[in-house]
Design a protein that fits this description.
40% strand, 16 strands, 230 residues
């Protein structure tokens, strides 16, 4: 499924401006296989015979309102998650629970990762990025922890809480893009942080270059685990 929408003014209360009537096509550059996505008239464009191939390059073409948008990306693989462990010692605060995932980094190649953590009931996930620059060929671990709140001990992780952790294999270009977005989001409440800069993804408006699309066309192999704290 590919979901398309247009942007809204900052103070607009509209939840989503769905795009209907677009032409959406994904092409495997290595094989020239084309996949035409069908308009569901609700902002979603779907297909049921897409066959992803690891390390193949794909292009996206969206034609809407007389303008053509394109993007290109390579489908990246990811390792299996070896283990999930909880502790009170792996994070920043040794009085609250944290959870860690462990996975093997492939040898002799550059790898980039996105890790998505979300606790059941939360509205927004926590996103983290990782590279193998200093851990190539070794086991990598990444932890997730919620800050302690003395006024509300339910805000931190507790026995019985459930989290979903997804590990993505990503390209270097997407790593640079999402890492900047995460950095800007994390510093949003800091009065001393720099003014956020506009970050462009890989989507190009071939008809009018100044009207580029927001977001990023990414292809990733993913591994997901669900963990319940004891």
């Amino acid at each position: 499924t590919i979901a398309l929408s247009t942007s809204t003014p900052y103070f607009d209360t509209t939840v989503l401006n769905e795009v209907v009537g677009a032409s959406v096509r994904v092409t495997n550059v290595n094989t020239n296989t084309e996949y035409i996505f069908t308009d569901q008239n609700n902002g979603n464009y779907t297909i049921n015979n897409f066959v992803p191939v690891i390390n193949d390059t794909y292009t996206l073409e969206v034609i809407y309102n007389g303008e053509t948008y394109t993007a290109e990306e390579t489908l990246k693989s990811v390792s299996e998650i070896n283990a999930v462990e909880q502790s009170v010692e792996g994070g920043f605060d040794d009085e609250v629970l944290d959870v860690s995932i462990f996975f093997d980094d492939p040898v002799d190649e550059e790898n980039y990762y996105l890790i998505r953590f979300i606790e059941e009931g939360d509205l927004f996930p926590v996103l983290e990025t990782e590279t193998d620059e200093f851990s190539n060929g070794n086991e990598i671990d990444e932890f997730f922890e919620k800050d302690r709140d003395d006024a509300d001990d339910q805000k931190e992780l507790n026995p019985g809480d459930n989290v979903t952790i997804t590990l993505y294999g990503i390209s270097e270009r997407y790593y640079n893009y999402i890492d900047l977005l995460i950095e800007q989001y994390d510093s949003g409440g800091d009065p001393f942080s720099a003014t956020p800069a506009e970050i462009k993804g890989n989507c190009i408006n071939e008809t009018n270059e100044s009207k580029y699309a927001f977001g990023y066309f990414r292809l990733s192999e993913t591994v997901t685990v669900n963990y319940t704290f004891e």
